[in-house]
Amino acid sequence: MSPTEQLVHKEIEDNFIMVFSKSYCPHSAAAKKLFSELEPSLEDGKNYRFIDLDQRDDGIDIQQYLAEKYGQKTVPQVFINKEFIGGNSDVQALKGEKLALKLKATKA
Q1: Based on the structure, what is the number of domains in the chain?
Q2: Looking at the record's lineage, which domain of life comes first (predicted)?
Q3: For the whole prediction, is pTM greater than 0.85?
Q4: What is the reported pLDDT for 96?
Q5: Among 69, 80, 71, 62, which residue's Cα sits nearest to residue 20?
Q6: What's 67's domain CATH number?
Q7: Is 73 exposed, middle or buried (0-12, 13-18, 19+ CB in 10 A)?
Q8: What dihedral angle (degrees, nearest 10) is formed by the CA atoms of 60, 61, 65, 71?
Q9: For 42-91, how does the pLDDT look when each residue is reduced to its tens digit (9 = 90+)?
Q10: What is the span of the domain harbouring residue 50?
Q11: Which of these, 20, 7, 15, 37, lies nearest to 87 by C-alpha position?
């Protein structure tokens, strides 16, 4: 496994909500805003983290690996409880009861 693959898998494993994003992307900003608002209500042991790929030297490699692994080339790429959710439109479509259920799920 390459260092990039290791990093991606570790971040997904270690963070209940993991968002791979870009600092200038409005779709990333919308997803980050939603999770920032929800973060205080997360149960103990469940955390939220985002990585802005445009702020990292290996960001292009990370985005390329995510595209190969999960079939989505754009950001944000959102994972909840190690499950690939998709992008911002997928997250926004879950808002409400469906998202609440995912956030209440036992940490995998």
Answers
A1: 1
A2: Eukaryota
A3: yes
A4: 85
A5: 62
A6: 3.40.30.10
A7: exposed
A8: 20
A9: 998 899 999 999 999 999 999 999 999 999 999 999 999 999 999 999 99
A10: 3-104
A11: 20
